[in-house]
Amino acid sequence: VDLTQSPEVEEHIVSGEFLAVRCPSCGKVLKPEFPVFVRHAGGTILLVPELDRAAFFRGRLPYGLEDADRVVIGYEELAEKFLIKRADLDERVVELIKYYLLRKLLEEYEGDQEIRLLFSRREGSSLVFNALGLKEGEVGVLKVPGQTLAKAQAQLEQRLAEGPVAELLRGPYVSVNKLYAEEAEEGPE
Question: Between 20 and 30 A from 170 (CA), which of 68, 89, 108, 159?
Fold first, then answer.
């Protein structure tokens, strides 16, 4: 998909309508899972289907990544990248904030669901994130103040050079969700 030729597709991505089809028999909305290259003014994003998440982390995708500047896994992450771009934010700063939020949430979390944080929007100087997996069937809303954004922006260069956070912020897949892949590779304790 080339957004420079079809810019209206970006709105379909953000709204969740991208590649969605309605079954003519039952009316259910379906989203087929297959890899898609999305070209935009800033580069190329490869959408890796959720079903290929494990293969991606094992380095065993049946298709190449060489044409992608960035990789996302699943439609939610693709939409999030465009929301981050629209909010004029650095995706690495957003992922750094998500890392700190996730660490804080996991300190008190007693469930066994995977928690996912997705950037939603900017409200003034604050950032709003949706938290999935904390409670069955519910979406939590986390509002991060502008001073946290400023602090994360100031720390970015230092964090890029050290520890586990540096790996999370290294492309082509820039995501706090790499933490779950590391846990799965290490196995249970």
Answer: 108
CB within 8 A of 154, min separation 6: which ones?
none
Q: Could you report the per-residue pLDDT of 131-170, keeping only the tens digit for each?
A: 998 888 889 999 999 999 999 999 999 999 887 789 899 8
* Total-model pTM: 0.88
| Among 34, 6, 7, 3, residue whose Cα is nearest residue 19 | 34
Write out residues in the chain with pLDDT < 70, as ranges.
Answer: 180-189
| Cβ atoms of 125 and 102 closer than 8 Å | no
- The encoded tokens of residue 48 equal 């890796």
Sign of CA dihedral 129, 135, 139, 142: negative
Pairing of strands 116-123, 126-132: antiparallel
Token pair recorded at residue 166 = 């540096």
Rounded Cα gap, residues 90 and 153, in angstroms: 9
